[in-house]
Amino acid sequence: MRQVEISTPSILQDQLWPAYVSLGFLTMWMPYVWPIAYVCGALLIVMFIRKRIIRTLSNEVSFSIRQKEDLLFIDDETSCIVRIDGYERIIALGVPLLIRLEGNERMIFEDGSQAYDTRIEQDIHHVSVSAVKRGPASIHMCVMRVTLPFYLGTLFFTDEEMDMPSWVVLPTITKSPITESRMIRMGDRIVKHSPLNDPLMIQSAKRYEKEPAKQIDWVATSKVGHVQAKVFERQNLDTFTISLDLSGPLRNGLHAQYEDLIQQTAYWVSYLIKEDCKVELLINRLDKNNQVDRVTLGEGRKQLRLILVRLAMIHESNAFVASSRFTSYVSRHKQPHAELIHINHAMLLKSSG
Asked: C-alpha distances in angstroms, 105 versus 102, 134, 150?
């Protein structure tokens, strides 16, 4: 519901109307004090004009704010669009229009702060917003301010039912130098070769499209006269279960560097899905049903989006499962033919060592 709050000078308060009228009539015919009647009359005229202006602005001027994207990565920049309805009335009255926005700690405005104040010069105004921290980001307050001329007061417009812009800031998917990528890609399998491009499972060849040099099929290239790349057969080993354990070295409680583990998980999920793998994710926290948080097996961009959003919503206030119980749960509930990739505090120890 839209609300309009008014800041009024003390001498123009509505409850003073009877006093000014009575004082004006009493002093109008009295010698020496009759100028007071003219002062009271002037104040009544100003109060009447001010009330008309306030009624006009309250009825005809409103604002809305909308966003362009729903998902952002850290350091991404987007914009909100502030639209002023009835802006022509503001122009006609010649009064300044200002707006104030406040966001949470996961975002900043173009001036680098979490609060943004600016004067609106046209009916559509763009506000730049940058994501700085993983998790849900939002603008939680939007106030439009109109200052009346001659210090006649200030109008504050708010709307509690208006849908405020909100985003989910995803963890970055750039590679973190925590551990050797090859060992993670192997998972827990006994035969240490990658299932992504298994040289024993070559199916055919295709025209070269900027694949790595080791994937060039030189035999097929010599036959057809132009560069060919290997096409690998899809197999069960293309399925991965990623186990994200955010516990500390004591295998209980949240690790101090849990953000690094989340970022590493985001990278590997992105990498495997780009390689056309099926991925499921298990996290050692409890969901709203008091069960271990799990993203079921899937593939493609939809699965990547689902997992990144789930990683973005992890918060230190969540309830986490101890490593021993979580490891047992993963061994019992992971996909039977999936290769298991552990991401836990041991990776950080390898990096520091």
From this structure: 10, 10, 38
8 A C-beta contact, residue 173 and residue 266: yes
What b/e readout covers 126-154, taking b as 16+ CB neighbours within 10 angstroms? ebebbbbebbebbbeebbbbbebeeebbe
CA 285 remoteness from chain centre: 22
Residue 294 buriedness (CB in 10 A; 0-12 / 13-18 / 19+): middle
For 130-170, the pLDDT digits (tens) are 999 999 999 999 999 998 888 888 889 888 888 899 999 99
| Entry pTM | 0.75
Tally of CB atoms within 10 A around 47: 19
Identity of the amino acid at 130: S
Band of pLDDT at residue 305, cut at 50, 70 and 90: very high
Q: What is the mean pLDDT of residues 205-230?
A: 79
Q: Indicate the helix (H) or strand (E) that contains 146.
A: strand 135-147
- Tell me which residue has tokens 């499921």: 280
CA quadruple 313, 174, 333, 327: dihedral sign: negative
Q: From the centroid of its chain, how far is CA 72?
A: 6
| Residue 32 backbone class (left: φ over 0; alpha: ψ -120 to 50; beta: rest) | left
The Cα–Cα gap between 349 and 353 comes to 6
| Residue 234 backbone dihedrals phi, psi, to 5 degrees | -75, 140
